[in-house]
Amino acid sequence: VTRWLERLDRRWIFFGMGLLVLLPLLFPLSLPLTVSNRVRAFHDGIARIPDGSTVLMSCDYDPGAIPELVPMTRTALHQLFDKKCKVVVTCLWPGGPGLVDNTVRAVADEMHQVDGVDYVDLGFKEGREAVMVLMGQGIANAFPRDYQGKDTRSLPIMRNVRDYSSFPLLVNISAGYPGTKEWVQQVQGRFHLPMVAGVTAVSAPEFYPYLQTGQLVGLLGGMAGAAEYEKLRGEKGTATRGMDAQSMAHVFVALCILAGNWVHWRRRREERAS
Amino acid sequence: VSISHDLSIWVAAILTLFIFSFLYKDNPLYKFAEHLFVGVSAGYYIILNFWTVIVPNLWDPLVKAFRGEGVDPTHHGFLAASLGDYRGWLIIPGLLGVLLFTRLFGKIGWVSRWSLATIIGVYAGIKTTGFAQSDLVEQLHGSLQPLWTGQLASTVNVLIFTVGLITSLMFFFYSREHKGTLGVVSRIGVFFLMVSFGAGYGYTVMSRVSLLIGRFQFLLQDWLGIR
Fold this sequence. Notes:
The complex is a heterodimer. Chain A is an alpha/beta fold. Chain A is built from 11 helices and 6 strands. Chain A has helices spanning 2-7, 10-26, 37-48, 66-82, 97-110, 129-137, 139-142, 180-191, 208-213, 222-233, 238-273, and strands spanning 54-60, 86-91, 119-124, 170-174, 195-199, 218-221. In chain A, α8 (180-191) links the parallel β4 and β5 (195-199). By secondary structure, chain B is mainly α. Chain B contains 6 helices and no strands. The longest helix of chain B has 44 residues, at 180-223. Chain B starts with 6 loop residues before the first helix and ends with a helix. The interface between A and B is large, with 55 and 46 residues.
């Protein structure tokens, strides 16, 4: 077995991984999913704000993060619109504005929300942290026109929006830089705006310290976080449907690590013996 | 099964398959998709930045400032800055932006350093204050926890946290050789660091597998129409 494993073409591993991801998508296993405290805190963070509030939501990602972050965006918008909240959406990633606009518009249409009244997509603005600081002086200063090119100040939703003090909560969905870390540093810390975040799994460990100190009220980490959030909301979106494949892939990776270590250990033992 | 009739979905699906073909071996189809991606991305970013940065942030405000539109009537000229209207001054960042291109002309390339100095200075200032407040002060504050919380479970949690924090920090203390007590403490710190790396690796696997799941979901649902 050791010799066979040593000579195994890595393409078989790719093939095995492909099968283990593909089959659960075709034939769901409905493996159990437990909702973690950090995901519950994210949900409760939104649930606690007064109904009808205007919330700032920054979607800082591009198409590379669709499987993880679009489900979070959808579910968060569902929860906000259910609470009759008005949502001001921004995007600080150049690759994201079209994707974010499509996602927001799809959910808004599904829930019969009116553009410019119940929600507004302010689109993309280059400048990263500088934009965050500028928004502190006035949201319309930083985004004079929305994604559709309409004058931001003329929109009904923006009548009561001046700067960060107009929002009870910041919802940040982020795939990296600029994202959650920068929003915490530039906005949560300076303007004391409560904040919840949904992030890609690869960046999630970086944000646990913020969760522990209360700088983040709640945190969704990767597809698992998105699926737990969907479960909490009673929805069955793409994240929930992908979790069986996710679990199978993780078991496969763990077995590959064990097999690799076993081969290495055997080889080292043989070398010592000879 | 209801295969998509949308041409854009077909293009995306075929390009996805071209990229996946690299898993078998490098080939012209993969290279075509890769080069196409790089070219389209470069074009997209140039156009996006022109229409979302240059035009609304620089060109439009400057044109309005030169024409005197929206400027306080008691002031005169394009630099007539009243409170909240400093649009004329945008000529300075505009000029600094142009100076960046002097790097393309060997002898006067040094002029671009003025622009870089401004960018670095502004961002260093913004980052330093944000980092000091949110990462240094808040994290120090969060790390100072009472060792006895009144509940056994949370007390054990705090003790593990404190031991992990101190031993991990001691691992990065290089002014003395890691022998004796320091050696033992730093070795305990290594275990905590390894747990942290393991968690990081697990999350990284989850992110990468999510990308694969996303592509498969696209191929199955959006392209082939398998629900």
